[in-house]
Specification:
2 copies of one chain form a homodimer. Chain A is mainly α. Chain A is 72% helix and 0% strand. Chain A starts with 7 loop residues before the first helix and ends with a helix. The N terminus of chain A is likely disordered.
Chain lengths: 186, 186
C-alpha cells in the first residue's frame, strides 16, 4: 500500500503511520520511521521537527481553510458566515484522505498528549474564527457562540465521516449536521 | 479575610487559595497549606487527595447540577431542555462564590495541567448532558450540538461573571448569553 512514487515527505508520513498503527505511537522512534521509509533520520528532520509533527504538519493550514471559506462569503448572519467557513474546510477532507484520517484518529485516540494537542488545535480554529467574525462587526458573544457551534458541527461531521463503512462525502455529512444545528432553535 | 469560624475543610481551602495566588500553584506544598491553616498534613489528606483537589473537589457535583436542572424540565425542544440544565448550574454560582471563583480561575490560568483538567471537566458535563438528552428521545447529533452549545453559553457566562467590576448575577448574565445563542439562528 506504500506510495513509493511520492516524495520523501510522503514516504516518511506513510511509514510513520504504518508503524504508529502497528506498534503504537510511543513505541515508534524516528530511526524506525526513517528505516521503514528507506531514508535517513537526517532526511526525516528535514521535513518534521519530531514524530508528532507527522500527524500535525499537514494541519498547519487548518485554520487557514476555515478563514478562506469565511473570506469567500459576502455577508449574512453569523451562522451563515460560519457555514461558509465550514464549507472551506471540506476541501481538505476529500475521499482520498479518509483512510489516512481514520488511521490518524486511531493514533490520536491512543495517546493523551496527542488528544490534548488536537483539542488545542480545534480551540485555536474557534478563536481565529471568532476574531474574524468580530472583525466583520458581529458582537463578541455571538461571534464566540457561532464559531464554537461551527467547530462542534465540524467535529461531529469528522467523527461520522471516519466511521467504518461510511460512504457519504464530508460535505454531505456536514450539510446534514448543520441542518440539525439550524433546526435546534427552530 | 480568613473565615476561621469555618471547619477544617474550609480553612484548608482558604489557606491553599491564599498560597496559590501569592506564590503560585506549583510552588505551594501541602505542608505549607496545612501550616497556613494551622492544621496538620494528616488533616489535609483527610479532606483532599492532593493540592489540586482543593480546586476541583467542590466541583465533583458539577455535572449533577446541570442534570438536576434538566430533570426539573417537563419537556420541550432540545434548547429549552439545555436552558433548564443551565438554570440548575446558576444555584452553584451565587455571589458569595464570586471572589473564590475569580481567584480559582487565576490559579487555573497559570498552570497548563489545571487548564486541561478544567477542560476535561467541562467536556464531561457536555457528555453527561448529551446522554441525558438522548435518553429523552432527542437524536444524538442534535443532543450533542445542544449540549455543547449549552456548555459554551456556560463558559462565556462564567468568563463575564468573574470579570473585575462585574456586578450582574450569574443568572442574569446567562440569560443574556442564551438570548444571543437563540437569536443566532433566528
Amino acid at each position: 500500500m506504500a506510495r513509493w512514487e511520492g516524495g520523501s515527505r510522503e514516504r516518511l508520513g506513510d511509514a510513520a503511520m504504518r508503524l504508529f498503527v502497528a506498534q503504537g505511537f510511543e513505541q515508534t522512534t524516528v530511526a524506525e520511521i526513517a528505516a521503514e521509509a528507506g531514508l535517513t533520520e537526517r532526511t526525516f528532520f528535514r521535513y518534521f521537527a519530531d514524530k508528532a509533527e507527522v500527524l500535525f504538519a499537514d494541519q498547519e493550514s487548518f485554520d487557514a481553510l476555515f478563514l478562506a471559506g469565511l473570506e469567500g462569503a459576502d455577508g449574512g448572519s453569523p451562522m451563515e458566515l460560519v457555514a461558509a467557513a465550514l464549507g472551506g474546510a471540506t476541501v481538505f477532507f476529500d475521499d482520498d484522505r479518509r483512510p489516512w484520517s481514520r488511521r490518524r484518529q486511531t493514533v490520536i485516540d491512543s495517546n493523551a498528549a496527542l488528544q490534548e494537542r488536537e483539542l488545542h488545535k480545534i480551540a485555536a480554529v474557534a478563536s481565529a474564527l471568532t476574531a474574524a467574525l468580530v472583525k466583520r462587526g458581529i458582537d463578541p458573544t455571538s461571534a464566540a457562540l457561532a464559531a464554537q457551534a461551527g467547530l462542534n458541527v465540524f467535529r461531529l461531521t469528522f467523527a461520522a465521516w471516519i466511521k467504518r463503512g461510511e460512504k457519504r462525502s464530508f460535505a454531505e455529512i456536514q450539510t446534514g449536521v448543520l441542518a440539525r444545528l439550524q433546526s435546534l432553535l427552530g
